[in-house]
Fold this sequence. Notes:
Layout: H1 2-14, E1 24-31, E2 36-39, E3 48-56, E4 59-68, E5 73-78, E6 99-102, E7 108-112, H2 116-123, E8 130-132, H3 134-143, H4 151-161, E9 165-169, E10 173-178, E11 183-189, H5 220-228
Parallel strand pairs: 7-8, 7-9
Antiparallel strand pairs: 1-2, 1-6, 2-5, 3-4, 3-6, 4-5, 9-10, 10-11
Amino acid sequence: MVRTFLLFIINTLLLVALDLPTTIESSVVSIKDSGKISISKNVPSGMAGVVIHNYGKNLEAITHSLVSLDANIALVKNYIGLEHNNIPKIKTPITKADRVVFGNLYDNILLIAPNKRVYSKIIKLAPDRFWFHPDLYAYYFMENGEDRVTIKNLREFANRNLVGLVVIVARDRLRVLDPISGKYLRDIPMKLDIKVAKIPFYSRFDGLDSTFSKSSPDNLNRYFKMVEEIR
């Protein structure tokens, strides 16, 4: 009886607000070999971010992308957030004291959910974030002939649309993924009493493409198996 009551309290608290990763600001301390830098804060492993260089006269620009490793080390990558043939590539090298922002897009979230009820319930738990409607990802799916959710196609969609986090509804928890680094940042325990699911995920596309099914109890195990295998 006591255990049931405690579980009820825990789930109630979890439904008040989602404990999602937030932005962390730091700065470059030193440039290391192998494309790595040390930064002024310890940042959880797997968080993606950017380096911002100050050119003076209130002019700043993003010069590189980053992925946090362990301790206060980050791996530097080319910035591709604004790739365009008519926009010149920034060639500014990283310098000491450049500003570093991890999770700069974490307010922009894509939710992979099994059905509309679950989708609506979860987005209400974080009304201060911007939730991309899964229809956008579903359209990308059909346009590119995808048949299952993978980190590769999530990363491509995220780069095109400036998505910072992907929240995935699993059987007894939410899995929080940084699609740029491809790393899971945390699991959030949550019971949602899921009875029906769409394959491969909830969207408003029904019957327009054979990839997407209608909500059905028969799809539950297939949906849960798919989200556990997203890698």
